[in-house]
Design goal:
Shape: globular
Radius of gyration: 20 Å
GO molecular function: acetyl-CoA C-acyltransferase activity
InterPro entries: Thiolase (IPR002155), Thiolase-like (IPR016039), Thiolase-like_sf_Thiolase (IPR050215), Thiolase_acyl_enz_int_AS (IPR020615), Thiolase_C (IPR020617), Thiolase_CS (IPR020613), Thiolase_N (IPR020616)
Family: Belongs to the thiolase-like superfamily. Thiolase family.
Number of helices: 15
Protein name: Thiolase, N-terminal domain-containing protein
Helix content: 25-40%
CATH superfamily of one domain: Thiolase/Chalcone synthase
Organism: Mycena maculata
Order of helices and strands: HHEEHEHEHEHHHHEEHEHEHEHHHEE
Structural class: alpha+beta
C-alpha cells in the first residue's frame, strides 16, 4: 500500500519544478548506459547488407560488453522497431545469441517514429511500478532490409472517414501540408537543413559523436561474388561535408504533386539504418551496483494531432510534458527534436519560440538520418552526451509520429 501511495504522489505539485526534479530518491528511474551505433545510409551505406537481427545482435552484444551489468539482472527487454516483420522472433533470437540468459524476456514496440522512445518509456514505467528493477530499451531499424512502402489499403468502412484515410498517406504529403498551412518557405527549409549538416559536420570533426557511438561489426556482401565478409563501422556515413543552403536550393522537389513543392531530398530526414540502446534501473539498484548514473527519466507524453499535418505533433507533446513536470522552456538546456522534415521541425521551433542554439546542436535527422525505430533512443544518447559535455541539467526529446501523433520526454542529468 505504501508503494502505491508513493506512485500516486509522483506528480503532485510538490514534485514538480526543476528544484523538485533534481531531488534524488531511491525509486528514481535512472539511466546508466545510453549508446548508439553509427547511422548509415540505407541501400548504400555501411549497414546495407546487414539484417535487422544482426543490428539487434550487435546492439545487445555492445550493451553486455560496455554497460557493466550482468545480463541476468535485466528484468525485461523492449525493442522499438517499425518496419521489421516478425520483430519479436528477431529480437528474442538476437538477445539469446548475444548472451542474455533465457530467463530474460523480450517484447517489441511499434509507435512509428517514436518507437525507440516508447521502448524507453515502457521500461521506465515497468521500473516505476515495481514490476522490474532493471530493464533494457533498444531502438533499431534496417531500412535497407525493410523499405517503407507507405500505408496499407483500408477497408472502405474505414477509408470513408477522411481523417482515417489521411493516416495512410505518404509522409511527404504531410510535410507539404505543414509547409503550406503554416507558411514555411523552401528557402527557410534549406537554410535549416544546411545548419543541420553543418552542425553534424562540426560535431563529427570535433570527436563529439565518438562518446556516444559504439563500433558495429557486420557483414558486407561482395556485389560480384556474393561472398559476405565482416567489416567494422565506426562513423556515421550520411553527413555531407560542405553543405550550404545554396547547394541545397538546387535539389529538385521530391513531391511536386503536393502543396508548394518545398520538400526535397536535401531538407528531409535521410533513409537510414541504425540502432541505439538505453539501460534503465532504480537509483537504489544503480547505487548498489556501483554504476555511474547519467540521468533520470522524469516523464513521457504522447498526444494526437490531425493526420494530414502529423508533423506538428512535437509542439503539443513538448508543451504537455513540460506542464506535467512543472517546467518552463527556459528550464530546458537542450532539445532533441526529430528532423523528419525541415518544414515540420522548423515550424515546431517557431511555434514554441525556441532558441535555435538549444535545438539539435549537433545536427539532427536531416544530417544523421532517421532509422524509424532507432531515432527515439538515438536522440537520448545524443542529447545526454551533449548535456554532459555542456554540464547542463535538462534534456527534452520530441518527435512527430506517422498517422498524426507527437511524443516528448524529459530527462534530468545527474549532478
Amino acid at each position: 500500500m505504501e508503494r502505491v501511495k508513493q506512485l500516486a504522489a509522483h506528480f503532485t505539485s510538490s514534485s514538480k519544478g526543476l528544484a523538485a526534479l533534481e531531488r534524488k530518491s531511491p525509486d528514481d528511474v535512472v539511466i546508466t548506459f545510453a549508446m548508439r551505433s553509427p547511422l548509415c545510409k540505407a541501400k548504400r551505406g555501411g549497414f546495407k547488407d546487414a539484417r535487422t537481427d544482426e543490428l539487434m545482435l550487435e546492439m545487445f552484444k555492445n550493451t553486455i560488453a560496455r554497460s557493466k551489468v550482468d545480463p541476468a539482472l535485466i528484468g525485461d527487454i523492449c525493442v522499438g522497431t517499425v518496419l521489421t516483420p516478425d520483430a519479436t522472433y528477431h529480437a528474442r533470437g538476437a538477445a539469446l545469441t548475444a548472451g542474455f540468459p533465457d530467463t530474460v524476456p523480450v517484447q517489441t514496440m511499434n509507435r512509428f517514429c517514436s518507437s525507440g522512445l516508447m521502448a524507453v518509456t515502457t521500461i521506465a514505467n515497468q521500473i516505476r511500478s515495481g514490476q522490474i528493477e532493471v530493464g533494457l530499451a533498444i531502438g533499431v531499424e534496417s531500412m535497407s532490409e525493410n523499405p517503407d512502402n507507405g500505408g496499407p489499403s483500408q477497408s472502405e468502412l474505414i477509408a470513408s472517414t477522411p481523417a482515417a484515410k489521411d493516416c495512410t498517406q505518404r509522409m511527404g504529403w504531410t510535410s507539404e501540408n505543414v509547409a503550406s498551412d503554416f507558411d514555411v518557405s523552401r528557402k527557410d527549409q534549406d537554410e535549416f537543413a544546411a545548419t543541420s549538416f553543418q552542425r553534424a559536420e562540426a560535431a563529427e570533426k570535433a570527436g563529439i559523436f565518438e562518446r556516444e557511438i559504439v563500433p558495429f561489426t557486420v557483414f558486407r556482401k561482395d556485389p560480384t561474388t556474393g561472398e559476405r565478409t565482416r567489416v567494422t563501422i565506426t562513423k556515421d556515413d550520411g553527413i555531407r561535408y560542405g553543405t550550404t543552403s545554396e547547394s541545397l536550393s538546387k535539389i529538385r522537389a521530391a513531391f511536386p504533386q503536393w502543396g508548394k513543392s518545398t520538400t526535397t531530398g536535401g531538407n528531409a530526414s535521410q533513409i537510414t539504418d541504425g540502432a541505439a540502446a538505453v539501460l534503465l534501473m532504480t537509483r537504489r539498484k544503480a547505487e548498489s551496483l556501483g554504476l555511474k548514473i547519467s540521468a533520470k527519466h522524469v516523464s513521457t507524453s504522447v498526444t494526437g494531432v490531425p493526420p494530414r499535418i502529423m508533423g506538428v505533433g512535437p509542439v503539443y507533446a513538448i508543451r504537455m510534458v513540460l506542464e506535467q513536470c512543472g517546467l518552463s522552456q527556459d528550464d530546458v538546456d537542450l532539445f532533441e527534436i526529430n528532423e523528419a522534415f525541415a518544414s515540420q521541425c522548423l515550424y515546431t521551433i517557431r511555434e514554441l519560440g525556441l532558441s535555435s542554439d538549444k535545438v539539435n546542436v549537433n545536427g539532427g535527422a536531416i544530417a544523421l538520418g532517421h532509422p524509424l525505430g532507432c531515432t527515439g533512443a538515438r536522440q537520448i544518447a545524443t542529447g545526454l552526451n551533449e548535456l554532459d559535455r555542456r554540464n547542463g541539467k535538462v534534456l527534452v526529446t520530441g518527435m512527430c509520429i506517422g498517422t498524426g501523433m507527437g511524443a516528448a520526454a524529459v530527462f534530468v542529468r545527474e549532478s
